[in-house]
Amino acid sequence: MKLKTIMTLLIVCATVSIATAQKDKHFEIGLQGGYGSVWIINQNNYGLPEMDYEYTWSGGFNFQAGYNFTENIGLFTEVGVLNLGQQYKDQGAANSEIARTVDLKYLNVPVFFKYSYGESRARFRLLVGPQFCFLQKAEQTYTVNGNDFSYELHDKEGNTFDAGASDITDRYNEMDIAFVLDLGADIFLITDMLYLSAGARMFYGLTDINTSAYQLKNNDGNYEASHNAGVTFMLGLHYIIAGK
Q1: Contact 46/214 with Cβ under 8 angstroms?
Q2: CATH at residue 120
Q3: What is the C-alpha to C-alpha distance for residues 165 and 145, in angstroms, rounded to an integer?
């Protein structure tokens, strides 16, 4: 009798556990926008004098989809765009004003592990994982005293190029891989159905964005790899479409 009672209790407990686990599983989708500071770590000015960095701001947006395996743990991905790059300003000979802006347009596809925690409407959330960045276009404006700058140089393969050209897509690798850390909160507007997300997203490119032909030494006779980096503040709206 005791054994039968124990077995019955175990079966009931197992059933409740399975039901609870199933309840916590769900799919969700969302739209997010972001704005923040972006950089190119180690500028590449093709052997010409390097310039002072200027604060560079940029925005972007993405579509997010994910699946929560439990109440706290999930796997998410996004498809989005974010303009990266860097602005530079400096003074040249005879107090000339030199300005350069590099604008890199990427299609970004991150794959995130998500951890969230909290008992109230606001839940702490962490997203972490790799982001695959596909270059769409690279452009620059390069001026001296407001006039377009033009100067012929040679790349590592001996080809002539204009340092001040506007379309510089061929100077950058087609793909970058970044490490992303996103810290923030999910704030439910409708319990288990609709929530706002807000957070700070930090990313750093792990690969050299310059193609091998343009990995040219600087004025000190050294070459330093260039990396994308930045911090953006994200705001999104998410809808739980199935499950809990």
Answers
A1: yes
A2: 2.40.160.20
A3: 17
Q: What is the tens place of the pLDDT at every residue in 113-157? A: 999 999 889 999 999 999 999 999 999 999 999 999 999 999 999
Q: Which of 27, 56, 28 is nearest to 41 (CA)?
A: 56
Tell me how long the chain is: 244
Q: Is residue 43 part of a domain?
A: yes
Per the structure, the count of domains in the chain is 1
Give yes or no for a contact between 239 and 212, defined as CB atoms under 8 angstroms apart.
no
For 210-226, how does the pLDDT look when each residue is reduced to its tens digit (9 = 90+)? 999 999 999 889 999 99
Containing structural domain, residue 77: 26-243
Nearest residue to 127 via CA among 115, 141, 117, 139? 115
Query: How many CB atoms neighbour CB 146 within 10 A?
Result: 7
Give the Cα separation of 171 and 194 in Å (integer). 43
State the pTM of this model.
Answer: 0.86
Q: Are 232 and 36 in contact (CB under 8 A)?
A: yes
Task: Give the separation between CA 73 and CA 149, rounded to whole angstroms.
Answer: 52
Token pair of 23 as six digits:
């309840």
Beta strand pairing call for 227-243 and 194-205: antiparallel
Q: How far apart are CA 244 and CA 241, in angstroms?
A: 9
In a domain, 127, yes or no: yes
Amino acid identity for residue 89 in this structure: K
The Cα–Cα gap between 50 and 158 comes to 22
